[in-house]
Design a protein that fits this description.
mainly alpha, single chain, 86% helix
Length: 69
């Protein structure tokens, strides 16, 4: 079983890569891909906390984020 801090660190890394891509690139497609990477980092964090706390609200919120993105 993988511990919770690993998932949180990986989600933060994905989010940081997305922020770096948004701030450094001028191409609109790459900026949109970087925003999607940021959303995936947030989704991973939400799902990790939701699984750790045995609560379904994180899963539901993640589905809404995926639907909007």
């Amino acid at each position: 079983m993988v511990p919770l801090p690993f998932y949180l660190a990986f989600g933060a890394l994905l989010f940081a890569i997305g922020v770096a891509g948004v701030l450094t690139r001028r191409n609109a497609i790459i900026v949109l891909m970087s925003i999607e990477l940021m959303l995936n980092g947030v989704n991973l964090t939400l799902l990790s906390f939701s699984h750790f706390l045995q609560d379904l609200r994180g899963h539901i919120f993640t589905l809404f984020i995926i639907a909007v993105a």
